[in-house]
Amino acid sequence: MWLRTSCEMSFEISVPTPFILMLRLRSGRQQWVASDEYMLTPIIPVMEFTDGYGNLCQRLVAQPGPLTIYTSAEVMTADYMDQSPGAPFVDIEYLPDEVLSFLLPSRFCESDRFGQMATAIVAGKALGYDQVKAIEDWLRNSIRFEPGNSEVPISAVEVHARQSGVCRDLSHLGIALCRSLSIPARLVVGYMYGLEPMDLHAWFEAYVGGRWYTFDATQTELRSGYVVIGYGRDAADVAIYNQFGPPVSPVVKDVRVQLLEKRHA
Amino acid sequence: MWLRTSCEMSFEISVPTPFILMLRLRSGRQQWVASDEYMLTPIIPVMEFTDGYGNLCQRLVAQPGPLTIYTSAEVMTADYMDQSPGAPFVDIEYLPDEVLSFLLPSRFCESDRFGQMATAIVAGKALGYDQVKAIEDWLRNSIRFEPGNSEVPISAVEVHARQSGVCRDLSHLGIALCRSLSIPARLVVGYMYGLEPMDLHAWFEAYVGGRWYTFDATQTELRSGYVVIGYGRDAADVAIYNQFGPPVSPVVKDVRVQLLEKRHA
Amino acid sequence: MWLRTSCEMSFEISVPTPFILMLRLRSGRQQWVASDEYMLTPIIPVMEFTDGYGNLCQRLVAQPGPLTIYTSAEVMTADYMDQSPGAPFVDIEYLPDEVLSFLLPSRFCESDRFGQMATAIVAGKALGYDQVKAIEDWLRNSIRFEPGNSEVPISAVEVHARQSGVCRDLSHLGIALCRSLSIPARLVVGYMYGLEPMDLHAWFEAYVGGRWYTFDATQTELRSGYVVIGYGRDAADVAIYNQFGPPVSPVVKDVRVQLLEKRHA
Amino acid sequence: MWLRTSCEMSFEISVPTPFILMLRLRSGRQQWVASDEYMLTPIIPVMEFTDGYGNLCQRLVAQPGPLTIYTSAEVMTADYMDQSPGAPFVDIEYLPDEVLSFLLPSRFCESDRFGQMATAIVAGKALGYDQVKAIEDWLRNSIRFEPGNSEVPISAVEVHARQSGVCRDLSHLGIALCRSLSIPARLVVGYMYGLEPMDLHAWFEAYVGGRWYTFDATQTELRSGYVVIGYGRDAADVAIYNQFGPPVSPVVKDVRVQLLEKRHA
C-alpha cells in the first residue's frame, strides 16, 4: 500500500523562538520511506539529531515573522497490520535491555496507579497479546472517543476521570494499563489513511511475543494505513514540535494522507 | 574527602520475582570510586546493563526465600561542591543534544503545569544559576521538609498541593519549576554524609553555564559529602530497585556513610 | 548553494545476497536535506538502522535477478566551507568522549606506523589546524592523485609505498598522519559538485579548535559543493554498500551532482 | 569458581601525559564482579566514560613523577565455558544491528584479505560453530604460540607471514578468518586463571547460534577461568591503556589471578 503523507504548519513568530521538530519519517518495520520532502520557509539553519528513541529531530530558532514547515513523503506500508492473538507475555528477565524503560511510569501514563483496575479489565485472559486486546476493547467501550485535537495533553488518570478523550488520551490510558501489568507499551504518533477528520494520529504499541504490536482503540478494527512519525514513552517524548518561550500555535495546520494508486517503484 | 558508603537490603521473597537494581556506583565528576563491593545472598545469576542515562543496572530473578543485597564502596568526593552564582542560562539552541530530554515533563515532574508559578518565584533574578537558586530557596521556605522515606512517590503537583514532602518530593518540585523555565534539570539519587536520619538521599541538578550544578533544598547550605548512585528524569528512572510482580518490601534496609580519616590511596 | 545529487547502481544477483547500504543522506552541519528519494527495483523488504557513527544504514537481502538502487536528494550546502588557520590543537583531556575513537588506528589508517613521518611533515607548524593543513599540502605535492575508483581499498602504508592513489587513498594517508599526532581524524564519503570525472568522492575531517574541519588533498583549494553521505574511521566503516557472499559488482553506476539555479524553498 | 585478579603497573612520567585506561571490570554473561578496587598513586582527577563497545574507560593526565595504577577484583566466573558444536551460522539478515560492525575488517584483522584461505581451512565443516572450531584448531596447529607479550601489535597478515605470535596475534588471525566467512568475531582482553607465564591474556569470541562463544587457540582445550576486561574489534579498541605523547612503558607490571577457595557470598 503506497501512501503520500503531508503536513503543513504555519506560525506567526514574534520573538526568536527555539523549536525541536519531529517530522522526518524513518524507515522501519512495515514502513519504507521511498521519498521525503522537508521545506522551511524562510530557510533557516537547522541541526538534526537522533533522540534516545531513534527518532530524527530537527533543532532551529525561528526568527520573527511567518514560518512555514512543510513535509511530505511517499511511503510503502504493509497491506495488513500484524496481529497475533495468543502471543505470550514476555517474562521481565527475557525483555531486551532497551525495552525495559517502556515498563516505567511516565508523564502522561501513571502506570503506578492502575494495577487493580488493569487486573480487573484483563481477568480471565491469557497473559500477553490477549490482555492488551482486552485493554483495547475496554477502552473502546468505556472511554468515549472524541475525534480532533485537545489543546493540552492530559494524563491517563485524568482521562480515566473524564471518561473521554482524543486518540492520544485513549492511547495514554491504554499504555498505563499495559505497563501496570508489566507489559512494555509505547506511544506512536503518525499518519493514518482514511482518518476522519484527517489530522495527525496517535496509537500505541505493546511488546508481547518478542516484538511490538500495534493497537488502536479509536478504530473498530485494525486496518492498514498507519505511517509512523515517532515513538516514545508518551506524548512528552513524541511531540511533532516542542517550542520554547512564549507559546505560539500554528495558524495553519494541514494534514493529508493520499492513496497512491500505483507506483513505478 | 574519603567516604565509605554501604546499603543493605533484605527481602522475603514468596514467588520468583524479577528485580532491576541500580546500586553500582560509577566514577564521574567530583566522584572517584576507589573500591566497590556487591554481594547477593544467595548468589544468583545477574546481568548488568547500562541504561539510557548511563547508570549501571543489574537484572535478576529472586527465588522464593530470603534475599540480601549488600553494596559498599569507598569513594573520594570533592571537598567543596561547585557553585556558580551568575552562571548564565544556556539558550536552547546551544544545549547539547543529550541534555534536551531533561527539558521535558516527566512522570513526577509535570513541568507543563508550573510556568506561571515559576516565573513568579524567580522574578527579578538573572537568568540561569540565580533562578535555580531562587527556586531552591523558595522550596526551603515554602515546602516543609519531612525527613524519612514516603511509601509511594508523589508528583510535583501533589507535593505542591500538600506543601510538604521528603527529599525526593522537594527535588521533583524543584525540577518541574526549572524545566518550566526551559532550564534542564534532573534527579540524583545517592548517599549523603551526615544526613539525619541516615538513609538514601535525593537532590537535583540543573544545567546552567554549560554544565550541571547541584542543588538541595533539604539542606540549609550546599555542603560536600554527596555520593551519586544514579541520574534520571525523575524517580521513575532512578529507582534503587524496581521489582515486578506482587510487591515486596525490604524487611531490613540499612544505609551507612562513614568518613574515612585517611586513606593510603 | 542548492544541489541535486543522485546515485544509481544496478546489480545482477545470482544467489540471495545480503546488503548493507549507506545511501540515505542526513542533515547536519553545513548541509540540509530538503528532499530525498530512495527507490529499489524490485521492491524488497528493507530494515533501516543507525550505525555507531550516526549513519543511516539499510539492510536487505537481494533476490536473484536484476536489482537497481536509485537515490537522489536536494540539498542545501554552505556557500563557503569553514576554514580556520591557527585553530588550536585540542588537548586529549578536553576531547569529547565520542571523538576519542577517531584517535585510534583503523583498518586502512595504520596511524601507529607514521609517527616520525608526520612529525617531519608538520615541522615548524603551529599545533592544530596548521598541522593538518601541512599534511594536506604534503599529500597534494607528494602523492599522485589518480581520479577514478580503485577496485580494492588499500591502506595508508600501501598508499605511501605506492606514492599514488584515488581520493579515498589520499584521505586514508592524511587520516593516519593526523592521528599519529594525536589529532582526531575521520573519513567522509559523499558527493562533490564539479568533480571530474563525476563519481562518489571521499575526503577527510580533522578535529581541531573544538570542532571538525574539512580537508581534501585532491583539490587545489577548498571549494564549496560537498554533500556528506557518511562518516567513519575509514573506508571499512563507510562503505556505500557492503555485500556478503559471492562478490557482485554494479553493472551500472551513475553518479550525478547538479546545481539548482534557484529553489522556491 | 571464585577468582581474585589484580594488575599493578608503575610508570615513570617525565611530561604531563594523557592516558585512557580500560581496567574496570564489568559484570556480564558468565562473570559477576563481587568487588572491585582501583587505586591511583598519587591520586589525580579521573573521568570515566563508556566506550562504543560498552567498556568502562578512565581518562586522566599523569603528572611528572611516578604513577602507580593498581586494580583488583573478586569475580565469580562460570565453572564451565559454554560450547556448542553444531551451533548454526546466523544469516546476515538475522544478525542484531549492533553485531554487524564485527563483520568489518579492522586495524589488526584484515579480513578482506583472507577469504580463500578461510574457505580452505573450514572445508567440509558445517556452517557456524564448527567452522570457528576448525579455525581455532588450524591456528593451534599452524601458528606457533609464543607466550609473553610482544612490544608492538602486528596484524593478521603479518602474523600469518611470521607463522608465530603471542595470544593477541593468534586471536587477530582467528578473527580475520572468521569475518572473512561472514561470522562476526571480536577480541577479548582479560585475565586467565592458570596462565603460564601469568600476564594479561587475549582470546576471541565468535557470534554463532545467536550468541557469542569463546575461542582460544593458545590453550589445548577450553577450560574455565576467564575474566573479561574489555571487548572490541581488535587490539586497537581494547588497549589496557592508551597513552598519548612521548611513549612511556610500565617499569613494573604485575598481574595475578588467584583461586578463592570459598567465599561467604
From TrEMBL, chains A, B, C, D:
Protein name, per record: Transglutaminase-like putative cysteine protease
Pfam family, one: Transglut_core
Transglutaminase-like domain ranges (all copies): 159-219
GO annotation, biological process: proteolysis
Organism whose genome encodes this protein: Zhongshania antarctica
Highest taxon of source: Bacteria
Keywords associated with the record: Hydrolase, Protease
GO-annotated molecular function: peptidase activity
